[in-house]
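User: quick one, sequence for these tokens?
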């Protein structure tokens, strides 16, 4: 049956005679103006006292904490959520019992056809907010919980996400204009933990914010609530999820009792998210099941730590010729170790580094005399090397230490002065461990215990001698393949270009088998192959072996090809690398890595 209502374009609301205006404006602490005065008049007239106004100490027109308490008392008396926020529910309750001025039109209820009384114009709904592209259409709003990556907050965090709302609109665009949060039953959530709360849109813009204090947080049935309004966030109809993020500022200081405690923030249980559809009708969604619990930890500074490791920039096996000084057996500032320090959670100042250097496995002060600590090319500390091979770089950069910024990695280089190098190569090894590193956080507190971890040591072989070949890589070694699969063998090709300088003695390079290429799958050797090369254009004499005279340098390009190994388990995305070594193993160059296809199922395959 068709339902028809005859309506006039100008209608009169039947309301009780107390105020001359129908309430339609949301009011909260801080609101001002005639609407606030009208609300305060109604509250006082109906026995909900506002002491400051009634005593004459304050004038009407400002919504303060006493108005909030009076409004909450009224809401409790009529069974409304007692948040002290004057929103649509409370407005509707008051508008049902007071006489007010009339709107210029009346909305046509859904499911009815409205016919205008002659001389008047009915409307099909309220006014759609700016940005709505579906005027006149009713819609529905849904809210589900989105993902928030962090479940731990730290003292001093700003705008830290604590709850994510995934919103969808059906049939009509909806402008979301209010979010009401339940802060739990313990007031410490806003007195000791969080100072501000925010509603943040998809692209990071702050839509609304509210300080958390006694004037903005309301209590009802032992729960604390805060309402964020004053924004209009458009959710397009039938579009993928749009997200609102609830974020908080954590107090800049927290007592030790509060450390490690948790806090749960959820939507309130009754119509927490409100939006306006294209017909100007309020749509509500969400409930208290949308919640997130976070743990409050100490400040990032208090939980800072550093990790020490051998830096990837360290070269392979290297021959160092120490042929300086009066006895041709010295070398100054030889790089023995590049180590990395990664600072996590906070800026960390390195105040001390202890490094131990051995020569031929012996901590002999006659072989190493001084040590130097660099950041790139900048010398930041120096120290003498004691009889046990220990150099202590102390008081680095004064009281602040040498700062490694939070969540970054900085490489440091240690160089040493070599003395009394012998004819035979002797390995030089420098080691730095967590026990030899001292550091402090940005607040000047020392890192202790497990806050400093890891170690670094000279990789491969660093051989020091009075005379011999010095190898220098030219360009980037390569490795490539022609065919690859799980059932057919692949042919790999590799190439290395490097120079060999003879220092302190002549160097002989064999005509065949001079260089050996090792093949590695996921770091494990699967065989070696001799690399071929042509006679260098210059720098050598003889027809094989080739001789590099003392003080001369020759450039070689060594090439090798090989069939991929069989019966090797190669995980999906496994890595094949090659490296070239001199015949005596005194130098190693590693090629570019190549990711080969594995089945990832533990099956042995043919590369």
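Assistant:
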């Amino acid at each position: 049956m068709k339902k028809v209502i005859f309506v006039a374009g100008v209608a009169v609301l039947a309301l009780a005679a107390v105020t001359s205006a129908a309430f339609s404006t949301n009011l909260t602490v801080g609101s001002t103006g005639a609407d606030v005065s009208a609300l305060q008049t109604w509250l006082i007239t109906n026995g909900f006292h506002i002491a400051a106004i009634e005593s004459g100490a304050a004038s009407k027109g400002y919504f303060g904490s006493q108005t909030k308490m009076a409004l909450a008392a009224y809401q409790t008396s009529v069974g409304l959520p007692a948040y002290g926020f004057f929103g649509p529910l409370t407005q509707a309750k008051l508008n049902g019992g007071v006489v007010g001025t009339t709107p210029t039109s009346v909305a046509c209820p859904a499911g009815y056809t409205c016919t205008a009384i002659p001389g008047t114009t009915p409307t099909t709904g309220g006014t759609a907010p700016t940005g709505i592209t579906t005027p006149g259409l009713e819609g529905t709003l849904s809210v589900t919980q989105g993902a928030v990556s962090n479940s731990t907050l730290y003292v001093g965090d700003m705008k830290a996400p604590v709850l994510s709302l995934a919103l969808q609109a059906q049939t009509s665009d909806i402008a979301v204009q209010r979010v009401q949060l339940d802060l739990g039953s313990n007031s410490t959530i806003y007195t000791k933990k969080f100072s501000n709360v925010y509603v943040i849109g998809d692209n990071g813009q702050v839509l609304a914010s509210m300080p958390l204090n006694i004037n903005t947080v309301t209590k009802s049935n032992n729960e604390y609530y805060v309402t964020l309004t004053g924004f209009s966030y458009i959710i397009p109809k039938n579009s993928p999820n749009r997200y609102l993020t609830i974020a908080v500022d954590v107090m800049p200081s927290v007592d030790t009792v509060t450390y490690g405690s948790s806090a749960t923030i959820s939507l309130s249980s009754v119509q927490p998210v409100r939006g306006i559809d294209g017909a100007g009708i309020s749509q509500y969604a969400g409930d208290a099941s949308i919640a997130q619990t976070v743990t409050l930890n100490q400040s990032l500074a208090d939980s800072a730590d550093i990790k020490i490791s051998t830096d990837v920039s360290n070269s392979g096996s290297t021959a160092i010729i120490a042929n300086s000084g009066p006895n041709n057996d010295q070398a100054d500032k030889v790089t023995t170790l590049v180590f990395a320090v990664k600072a996590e959670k906070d800026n960390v100042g390195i105040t001390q580094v202890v490094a131990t250097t051995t020569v031929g496995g012996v901590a002999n002060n006659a072989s190493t005399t001084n040590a130097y600590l660099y950041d790139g090319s900048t010398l930041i500390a120096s120290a003498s090397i004691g009889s046990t091979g220990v150099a202590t770089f102390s008081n680095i950069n004064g009281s602040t230490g040498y700062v490694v910024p939070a969540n970054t990695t900085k490489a440091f280089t240690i160089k040493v002065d070599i003395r009394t190098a012998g004819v035979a190569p002797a390995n030089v090894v420098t080691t730095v461990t967590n026990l030899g590193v001292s550091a402090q956080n940005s607040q000047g507190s020392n890192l202790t215990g497990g806050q400093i971890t890891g170690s670094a040591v000279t990789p491969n072989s660093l051989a020091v001698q009075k005379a011999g070949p010095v190898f220098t890589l030219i360009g980037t070694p390569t490795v490539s393949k022609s065919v690859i699969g799980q059932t057919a063998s692949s042919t790999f090709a590799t190439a290395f270009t490097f120079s060999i300088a003879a220092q302190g003695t002549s160097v002989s390079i064999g005509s065949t088998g001079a260089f050996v290429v090792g093949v590695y799958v996921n770091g494990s050797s699967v065989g070696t192959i001799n690399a071929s090369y042509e006679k260098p254009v210059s720098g050598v004499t003889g027809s094989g072996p080739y001789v590099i005279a003392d003080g001369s340098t020759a450039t070689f390009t060594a090439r090798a090809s090989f069939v991929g190994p069989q019966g090797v388990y190669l995980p999906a995305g496994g890595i094949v690398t090659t490296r070239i070594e001199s015949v005596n193993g005194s130098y190693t160059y590693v090629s570019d890595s190549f990711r080969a296809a594995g089945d990832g199922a533990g099956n042995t395959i043919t590369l």
